[in-house]
Amino acid sequence: MLVSASGTCPWFVNLGLAIIRVVTGLALCIAFEKVLPRVGVWGPQQWFVEDVAKMGFPAPGFFAWCAALSEFVGGILLVLGLLTRPAAFFNAITTFVAAFVFHKGDVTGSGLLATIFFALSVTILFAGPGSLSLDALLSRFLRNRAHREAATT
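and the corresponding structure tokens:
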């Protein structure tokens, strides 16, 4: 489901999911500084666009923006627990490319951070946001609304 969060887990599991989600999201937003201004430039820096071009992507500027926004906006969504699974999905793709294409699978050296972000993104994708998230709040609201509408018909 796009927006779903089960409330059937114990509180400590939901707390653990929230901690993983928030820390991962914050780290994705700030770890690579690909959107925030650096040297007076907003958005992907020239070095990042060049790295994307070296990987063989067509339109490297476009794909650099996709990666940067996936990490920055997706990171914010993970922190909030809003559209968590789509955000985790796009970050899993982005960090997979970083770890296994750009760093050529060097998961113990230069690609370690990207590999960790990939593993965390996949974990969040599979586990979901937990009950301490806006997804859970939205899911409960929509479910209650559907029950109310079904009861009135």
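(Above: one complete record from the training split.) The chain has one domain: 11-144.
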